[in-house]
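Repro:
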Amino acid sequence: MNCNGGKYMKKKMLVSFIIFLALIVSIIGIATITLAPRLVYNRTVINRDSGNFRVEIVDEISVSNTDKVEAYVNKLDTTKAIMNVRGLSKAGDFATATFPIVNKSTDLYASLFAETSNTNSEYFDVTYNIAKPTNLAVGEKTTITVTVTLKKDVLVKEQTGTTVVTVKANPVQPK
């Protein structure tokens, strides 16, 4: 038997083990460098108190004509308001509802925008306008006015439509 063969085998195993260990350490290092910013970002998002940011439509609604417009805030989701329109007859006739919006957050500004849906888009166009400011400070109030306009004359049957307005907001750090 040759004694040098055993030493050679041990050296080969030691070198292989060192290369394997270096490879593992490199992979861990690369993963740490690439994932570190994501982990810090995710920690920030997870720790944010989601109950702290609230924007709501409040129930102080005004309408252009109570015979033609019924408007109310959704009791289950106060970021949504419903507007029912009836009795418009000539193209260009319109009805409006104005909904107050309040930033009820404790320390974050709110950058506002909205989405609308319309159950009778054949006859009605829906537009909205958020009054200034659209970036609400804590406790600040603004309004959104929704206008439903009749596209074409109604000849036979009265047309009705329901519009749902959803107020959305992005949190903004105070300046």
